[in-house]
């Protein structure tokens, strides 16, 4: 029962924070949506920030799973792995009517209002994601330094933030065109 409540709180927290933002989502709202008594929250989590770190870890693990399936898919050419990742996330954004982007990017934008534990968890998630990008990007763009992977990830996060504001695929379409141009140029030279 206690594990069920904890699981319900985390799953509900991911969904609500992804939809509305972590700072805008209160403990009362999370517990009500999870169907868990409000007092149970503190039985499972020391604080909202501690809960946020676990919520972020859960979401980041899902994204890293998508990265393994796409960026690390040795059956595909490196450029197809890279575009496959972006296509997969874009499909998720489309299914949610362009109203949700990436929770890591969203929490990063809110990070000033969170404590040190949340900032450290965000930094660790971004470092893991950047490393996966850098490994694939090095194969797509030989001779480029590892910063290109981190820059592409940052540009993608910005694209997803803009997509949420515009609630259209326009920013994703621009990103795809620029990436296709970069890939084409690297394959010529």
Provide an overview of this structure.
Helix content is 76%, strand content 0%. It is built from 9 helices and no strands. The chain has helices at residues 2-20, 27-34, 41-44, 48-70, 78-95, 103-110, 116-140, 147-166, 170-188. The longest helix has 25 residues, at 116-140.
Reconstruct the topology from this structure:
Layout: H1 2-20, H2 27-34, H3 41-44, H4 48-70, H5 78-95, H6 103-110, H7 116-140, H8 147-166, H9 170-188
Helix pairs in contact: 1-2, 1-4, 4-5, 4-7, 5-7, 5-9, 7-8, 8-9
Q: Which features characterize this protein?
A:
single chain; mainly alpha; 76% helix; 0% strand; elongated
Tell me, briefly, the overall form. elongated
Q: What is the number of helical segments per DSSP (H or I, 4+ residues)? A: 9
Name the helicity range.
Answer: over 70%
Roughly how many Å is the radius of gyration? 18 Å
Stretches where pLDDT is under 50 for at least 5 consecutive residues are: none
């Amino acid at each position: 029962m206690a594990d069920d409540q904890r699981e319900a709180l985390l799953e509900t927290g991911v969904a609500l924070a992804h939809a509305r933002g972590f700072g805008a989502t209160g403990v009362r709202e999370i517990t009500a949506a999870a169907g868990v008594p409000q007092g149970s929250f503190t039985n499972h989590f020391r604080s909202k920030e501690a809960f946020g770190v676990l919520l972020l870890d859960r979401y980041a693990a899902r994204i890293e799973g998508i990265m393994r399936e796409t960026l690390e898919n040795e059956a595909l050419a490196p450029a197809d792995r890279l575009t496959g990742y972006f296509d997969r996330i874009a499909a998720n954004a489309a299914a949610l009517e362009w109203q949700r982007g990436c929770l890591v990017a969203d929490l990063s934008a809110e990070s000033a209002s969170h404590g040190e534990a949340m900032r450290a968890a965000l930094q660790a998630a971004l470092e893991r994601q950047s490393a996966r990008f850098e490994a694939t990007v090095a194969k797509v763009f030989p001779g480029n330094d590892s910063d290109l992977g981190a820059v592409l990830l940052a540009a993608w996060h910005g694209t997803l933030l803009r997509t949420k504001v515009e609630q259209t695929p326009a920013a994703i379409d621009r990103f795809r065109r620029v990436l296709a141009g970069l890939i084409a140029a690297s394959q010529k030279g």
